[in-house]
Amino acid sequence: MSVANPAQSRIPEPSNPTAGAPVSDIDLNPQRWLILVGLILASIMEVLDTTIVNVALPQMAGNMGATNQEIAWVSTSYILSNVVILPMTAFLAGRFGRRQYLSFSIALFIVASFFCGTSRTLGEIVFWRILQGAGGAALLSTAQATIRQIFPLTQQGTVQALFILGIIVAPTLGPTLGGWITDNYSWSWNFFINIPIGIFSLFLVGAFLNDSQKPNRNAKVDWPGIGLLTVGLGCLQYVLEEGNKDDWFQSDVILILTIISAVCLVAMLIWETWPTNEHPVINFGILKNKSLAAALGLFVSLGVGLYGGIYLFPLFVQTILHFTPTQTGLVLLPGGIATAVGVIICGRTLNGPKPLLDPRYLIFFGMAMFTISMWYLGHMTTQSGEPDTRFALILRGIGLGFLFTPINLVAFAGLKPNEIQQASGLINLTRQLGGSFGIAILGTYVQNQIVYHRTMLGSHIYAGNPALIERQQGIQSMLLQHGYTSAQASAGWLGVLNQQVYRQAATMAYNDGFLMILILFLLATPFVFLLRRPSGPPGGGDTH
Fold first, then answer.
1. pLDDT in tens, 63-75
2. Contact between 423 and 74 (Cβ < 8 Å)
3. I need a surface site. Which of 24, 44, 167, 343 has the fewest CB within 10 A?
């Protein structure tokens, strides 16, 4: 076997142990397919918990005597701790060992899920959600890095596609599953379902996974870096989660936390790249790899598209088009299937020593499909129905399916095996932060646009306007047909008109929101041109 380009991180020949990547960094585990099942289950469990409880929050608020704003901390605390831990997963895996860290994280997630389900006060559940989010960080980044190390290059396209499939589909199906569980059982079962899944995942990982290298328990801990990272990302995530509800910088708390976040993150970046810091908690040196740096930019936009879209769509169809939660889930389902098909096609296309297509072509195709879908969703009306939304969501699903796998493979292709864990943490962090930024921006933007469009439409409501007179007569006639008296119809037409104006203004605002996603997505297009085509099979494992 000839030695490939060093950027491909292949296993060296036994006769030349100094060539290529260290053998200890690669572990082609014979039980790797069983491990893959365990890691996929763990990742689905983690991503699912970011959205599955959202529909249960009103019931939880009633049971715990909390306000709507207070109960939102059930979601906020989970995401906050998850974001803080994600960039530190490389350090934790290196210090405690990949197998031990993953096993501990899964066990922590199981225990925290149980106590979340048994919590009876807001303080209890927020505490356990923080621990659950901390445990969940490894279930994404460390799991993804492990897959790259235990599978050969010739299988990376397929296994990464299978892993990514769960990450994409789970947030889409989470609200539907959570609503069904809450309606038929109770909100506690949104957490209890993690226990059997987690136990099975823990068994597979604990029984079959080995450490590729010995843990370095004596390594110096970068406490200043950890402190700055924790405070900076923690404050940033709080601002993104709570800013819209607190009217952003009109709130002193939001303003102060924004300043603290900016100062800490800038200080952390300087400290982590300082020459005298020999053991940084985050190795920003890997961003010298242009493909990885460009991929991180793309993952920010993907986070906006994935989480921002799934945030706006249920609000639009349930409040404006009056879809039931079940209808919403059924409309989302074909899009999830389309994503699965796209991911599988990409996995097969990019598999093997000679991929059939340049991954960048697949990325451009995926961006085109996603952009078209946002254009369709950005031109919905109050008369739109399930077929209209279903078609747009199928296009969106195809687009997402053709984006995640090739971007992941290109991002990892030029990395050394010992850089994969750090890169995986940054990739998952940027996707999560992209989602947080997207939801924060879109939430505020749509609210402001509703006010704007309502004002613009209201300017046409004035005495003597022929269109207004015609609409008044139509509404009164409708009310009379529904059994109202003439007096009631004369008094009630203005209230009905006001509702119609609001509904029209809200539709226009949601259209603007989807078009905003389209614009933010297109702004990321230049990053694709910075990606470099892998000179060999993408991935971090061996080729045999």
1. 888 776 677 778 7
2. no
3. 24
